[in-house]
Structure formats: structure tokens, C-alpha cells
Write a structure and sequence with these properties.
Helix content is about 35%, strand content about 25%. With about 90 residues, it is of the alpha+beta class. A four-stranded antiparallel beta sheet has the order 1-4-2-3, covered by helices on one side. The longest helix has 13 residues. The protein is globular. It starts with a strand and ends in a 5-residue tail after the last helix. One of its GO terms (biological process) is phosphoenolpyruvate-dependent sugar phosphotransferase system. This is Phosphotransferase system, phosphocarrier protein HPr. Keywords: Cytoplasm, Phosphotransferase system, Transferase.
Length: about 90
């Protein structure tokens, strides 16, 4: 399992549009991926999980990925969480 600590830089945090992009990106990978915030685990492939996280600017979370393409998944998802709205 790979892990990376990341911080949200966007002023709007992880809003609905960014959450949708994150879930869409996560489903492209075979790897299972999760965001850990305040001790709670959120599945990156579930829009309801990601929206309920209420991730705001400046918050630090742990991103975890496990599976055959975990390294690629971790890199892509970390970028989306750190910079919501950017490609």
C-alpha cells in the first residue's frame, strides 16, 4: 500500500465539481484508493464518500492506494486533491 500526505491548496477546497472529477479519475484505476481525514476513511470511488468529507483549503489528509496501478493512481489523485479544478 502506498501513502502520501497532501494539502488542499484551492480556495474552494474540494467542491462538488472537483469531487466528481476525483471520483471519475479514481475509477480509471484498478487500485483501491482512500482519503483519510480526521481518522475517517473515504473511498475515492464513491461520490457520496468524497462529498461527505467536506475537504477545505489548507486541510491535510492522507491518500492511500493499493493495487497493480497504485503508483499511477496515487500520483493522479494527489494532484486532483492538492489542486482541485486543475488538470
Amino acid at each position: 500500500m502506498l501513502e502520501k500526505k497532501i494539502t488542499v491548496k484551492s480556495e474552494t477546497g474540494l467542491n462538488a465539481r472537483a469531487a466528481s472529477l476525483l471520483v471519475r479519475e479514481a475509477t480509471k484505476f484498478k487500485a483501491e484508493s482512500y482519503v483519510i481525514k480526521d481518522g475517517n476513511e473515504y473511498n475515492c470511488k464513491s461520490i457520496m464518500n468524497i462529498m461527505s468529507m467536506l475537504l477545505r483549503q489548507g486541510e491535510e489528509v492522507l491518500l492511500k492506494a493499493e493495487g497493480s496501478d497504485a503508483e499511477k493512481a496515487l500520483k493522479a489523485l494527489a494532484h486532483l486533491i492538492e489542486n482541485p479544478g486543475e488538470k
